[in-house]
């Protein structure tokens, strides 16, 4: 584990689907932090001490398939329902009955669905980078297939087991550096940032990664940590989240169009394609997130909001947490 974070305590907790690695700091009301792709508990390294100092028990998980958490072989084991079950299981394993859940990137829909499906456990939900959009009438693979014309949308590119792994795993560190840089405000291609998400026929996703230095938020040591995790685990567990989008759509049929009613928070970046592509989802928040307390688009910020703008995100997160009703 990184030596620069001595106050963070690490352990494995038992959940119904296996074991989940957690990184924990502080005491007080529980705040569960859920990362996205291709990240780790480590993407919350700036939030753990800030939340602990503000009087919260901050716990960042490694999702199943990541880090030291369980890595089931079955692709279907990475469906949304399994992640929701893991989150609820972690809360129980930590000896708590309820928690606030906060997610970034894939962690955002995982957090939103945790609140939607388990309102008895998750009393409030914070979403970062990816806006909440309820299940719709379109099968995701059909919708993604209509995006991009002659080129392939990255979610479709990730669908076939082994395909993206063959691109990434020969040079995990280099691929991660390019992916992080391509979605960061200070290193992305300002003219064609959306093009990074599309793969030309016969091409690779990395073909449009920017060259040059690392983003300012990412040190060589940070990149070493991320790369070390994925070099040890491989990418299949992480990519299997994408391979369940249609299965999720089927599993969540009973919640079609359902709003998340708990007090909520959204933080995104103005230079993040997630917020521009999903502008309609943001506009629909009065209906889909009726408990929304505050929504923030950070000017000139890219996708990795809690790492690119750690101090600003910490302030907004703590202000929101303090506004919530006492449990």
Compute the number of helices.
15
Radius of gyration: 18 Å
Instruction: Using the alpha-carbon principal axes, give the shape.
Output: globular
Low-pLDDT parts are none
Total E-strand runs = 10
β-strand percent reads 15-25%
**What is the arithmetic mean of pLDDT?**
95
Distance between the termini: 33 Å
Give me some keywords for this one.
single chain, 327 residues, alpha/beta, two-stranded antiparallel sheet, 10 strands, 35% helix
Per-chain topology:
Blueprint: E1 9-15, E2 18-25, E3 30-34, H1 47-53, E4 57-61, H2 80-93, E5 99-104, H3 107-117, E6 122-128, H4 140-145, E7 152-153, H5 154-157, H6 163-168, H7 172-182, E8 198-199, H8 220-233, H9 236-239, H10 245-251, E9 264-269, H11 273-277, H12 279-283, H13 285-288, E10 292-298, H14 305-308, H15 310-323
Parallel strand pairs: 3-4, 3-5, 5-6, 6-9, 9-10
Antiparallel strand pairs: 1-2, 2-4, 7-8
Helix pairs in contact: 2-3, 7-8
């Amino acid at each position: 584990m990184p030596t620069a974070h001595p106050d963070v305590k690490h352990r494995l907790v038992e959940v119904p689907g296996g074991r989940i690695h957690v990184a924990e700091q502080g005491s007080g009301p529980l705040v569960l932090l859920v990362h996205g792709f291709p990240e780790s508990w480590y993407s919350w390294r700036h939030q753990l001490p800030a939340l602990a100092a503000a009087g919260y028990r901050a716990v960042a998980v490694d999702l199943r398939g990541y880090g030291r958490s369980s890595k089931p072989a079955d692709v279907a084991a990475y469906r949304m329902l399994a992640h929701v079950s893991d989150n609820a299981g972690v809360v129980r394993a930590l000896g708590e009955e309820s928690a606030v859940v906060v997610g970034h990137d894939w962690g955002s829909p995982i957090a939103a669905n945790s609140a939607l499906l388990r309102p008895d456990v998750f009393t409030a939900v914070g979403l970062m980078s990816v806006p909440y959009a309820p299940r719709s009438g379109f099968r995701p693979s059909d919708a993604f297939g209509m995006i991009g014309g002659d080129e392939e949308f990255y979610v479709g590119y990730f669908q076939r087991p082994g395909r993206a792994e063959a691109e990434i795993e020969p040079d995990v560190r280099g691929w991660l550096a390019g992916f992080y840089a391509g979605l960061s405000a200070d290193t992305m291609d300002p003219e064609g940032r959306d093009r990074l998400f599309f793969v030309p026929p016969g091409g690779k996703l990395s073909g449009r990664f920017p060259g040059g230095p690392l983003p300012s938020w990412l040190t060589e040591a940070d990149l070493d940590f991320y790369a070390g995790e994925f070099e040890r685990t491989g990418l299949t567990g992480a990519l299997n989240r994408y391979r369940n989008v249609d299965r999720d759509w089927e599993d969540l049929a009973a919640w079609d169009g359902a709003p998340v009613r708990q007090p909520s928070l959204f933080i995104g970046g103005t230079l993040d394609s997630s917020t521009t592509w999903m502008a309609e989802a943001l506009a629909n928040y009065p209906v889909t997130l009726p408990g929304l307390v505050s929504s923030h688009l950070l000017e000139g910020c890219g996708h990795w909001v809690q790492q690119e703008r750690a101090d600003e995100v910490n302030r907004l997160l703590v202000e929101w947490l303090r506004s919530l009703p006492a449990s």
